[in-house]
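Follow-up to my post from last week.
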Amino acid sequence: MRAFVLSLLMAATAIAADQQTNPYASTYQPLPSRPTVIRNATILTAAGPVIERGAVLLQNGKVAAVGQTVNAPADAVIIDGSGKWVTPGIIDDHSHLGVYAAPGIESLADGNELTSPNTAEVSAEHAIWPQDPQFDLARAGGVTAMEILPGSGNLFGGRGVTLKNVPSRTADGMKFPGAPYALKIACGENPMRVYGSKGQAPATRMGNVAGYRKAWQSAVEYRDQLKRWRDQGSDPAKKPSRNLQLETLAGVLDGEIRIQNHCYRADEMATMIDISKEFGFKIASFHHAVEAYKIRDLLVANNICASMWADWWGFKLEAYDGIRQNIALVHEAGGCAIVHSDSADGIQRLNQEAAKAMRAGAEAGITLTPADAITWLTINPAKAVGIDKQTGSLEPGKNADVVIWSGNPFSVYTRAEQVFVDGALLYDRNDPSKQHKSDFMIGILPEVRR
Amino acid sequence: MKAALALAVSVLALPQPQAARPAAAQPPARRAAVPASRPSTAGETIAITNARVLPVSGPAIERGTVLIQSGRIAAVGADVAVPAGARVIDATGKILTPGWLDAGVQTGIVEIPSSAEGTDDEATTDTRVSAAFTVVDSFNGSSTVIPVTRIEGITRQLVTPSSTGNVFVGQAAVMDLSGDQVPDAVTKAPAAMIALMGEGGAAVAGGARATAILRMREMLEDARDYAANRAAFNSSQRREYVRSRLDLEALQPVLKGQEPLVVQAQRASDLLAAIRLAHEFNVRLVLMGAAEAWMVADQLSAAHVPVVIDALTDIPGFDSLGATLENAARLSKAGVSLALASFDTQNSRTLRQQAGNAIAYGLSRDAALEAVTLAPARFWGVADRVGSLEVGKDADVVVWSGDPFELTTGPEHVFIKGREMSPDTRQTELLKRYRTIK
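User reply:
Got it. Predicted complex:
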């Protein structure tokens, strides 16, 4: 057992070393910021109870202090937050911005490499168009980070990547430093429809599972082969040939890459948990998870998040049992409940999706406070994508990813007024010079105000 | 049999007494196989008291009463006498509105839209049918979508067909969500003729916007010629028409101004093209989609063209580069008649969220409520039946726990045609089953 853990550690170290030389590494640099104090605001930290009439200090790109009062440096910008609410920046752990960019035309349909059920070798980072105007719309909704995933047409859709929602000329310039890669995998109807209709596997849920198992078995062998080579001295002349597809899967087995699993039905989620145990990997979150409520005990026992919609249901059979209490029930069971969008519309109003889930919970007798609901939008998705050490809550030392709302974020009338990423003011509803427009929107219909 | 039904349905079936049409002088003989429902004359007497009543047709009434009798609204006001034996619902602190009217949905004709064969009647690949295609004969009052939708305050919908592969998509109907079957569930059928312009029109007309307009013009010209020459047509003495007799019949109420032509388009230039076409044929136009409507708001206002939008449309496409969350507010300010619609069959209930956001982006609360009640009722020709709390109208009434536009409130009682709807749905049953896991 000890040797096993040691070998895992060694493998992990090897991949970490590879990532230091990642040719696609983040080039993100925080934008200039000034020390900022927000006072007299209602603060949801996502790490404790609500702070009424509290204050937060943003300094050097970090949350420096949060509490009833903070010491303001002499040069600090002071914002009166009377009547306003302050929360961590919203994190969407399921987005296709940049890979299904607007305008939604064939030229920009980069989200699904539907040429083989296993395309673990592709990566969303190589298709993200940083000029997608939808990034700007999401920022106006308070979104400061999002995980961009490939689509769900394949069993293995490819790597996903976590971005900071900042204007940039390159995708690398948006990549969240230190965020692990994701591997998007998909259960159910989509892969079997896409490939079954082409007369190839998978055409059934049996075929889906066979496809996963076959691939994971190859990944285990690939990882072991590399391990043997390292154990025998890493002779460059004898290095096994590199396989990009298996490299991603092996990264999952080594715990470096996180599984984000599109899966609707309770029974299929249970099967995926079985597969993860057979091959020794961890599922970070089930996405869509329309039937998460039916197996919330299993999710809790296996420490797997559920990334859910507030009320989507019925658009296909595997979504037919969707109920409005899904999020509240997972939360009540002690699970890691996440409100996700999977939608360029929904990402603009994730706070409203959470509000709908609060109401649904209340109707079922589940008491949910704003301090509960904010975790679904911030710290829980941060955990699922692996950036919770850096962001997702307002705690000293964490990135100053912050939203000032015009009021209670769980009211339909409330809007994000100011959005900070690493302490830099990147959006201000009352200042057109702080409303970034992507290159695409420049020079067309200049009178449009969104 | 199917053809005969389709033909019969194409005839206007207006509920209003004044609109009863004389039988056509020329063959083919036609009759309405799907008459609209009449409000029931039976039913409970219910008094909802002490509510803040928002009748839409008039100013708010603080601590008002709405009296429901025989399926209709019998009284509305601050000083309404409650008859002996009436069921009284004390709605102190609650808000009372008319039932909401959504549009552009396929409720009752689509159960599950994807990969569930046999549950989807919104489109046809029968190329012999376009304008004559109809939703009513497919409508299933037992659809599980109906209870899920109505418990959120939506009591009627304009159910629209979605595709015939032609620029004319077919005839929409206003249906109630009582769970009744046809004909009782029909408020009006047909209520609107759906057609495509812009990108959507181009997609079914060889790829160009201009061809879509040409095809519409050709069909309308044929329909006009056909109406004037039915006898000659029936004795094969007329030139060939591009579409079938059924389609040409279906277009007659549109040409007579009895049924609106609903054009689905987004781009400002396409909306103006629709106005030109409507003017050319003197038909009543309603624009649907209309993401860039605010850019031509003055022209829409001057031409008295109503607009049905999703106020949350703000993602730019090449036919909607001007999409903005302020579309609703700007149209309202310019005096354009405005309705909001979800265009989402399963989640028609999100209409509330949409209206709330429209308010957050500048639409007045009164205009928002009208845009989901009386305005669409007028557009679809059913304002004599629904859309406001007025004496004599069908008792579609919603008692809200608080602000109807807010996300954390909800309906506590929903009445359709004077009948209180059950709060139970397939979803509430699932919740009950899984409230605890054994």
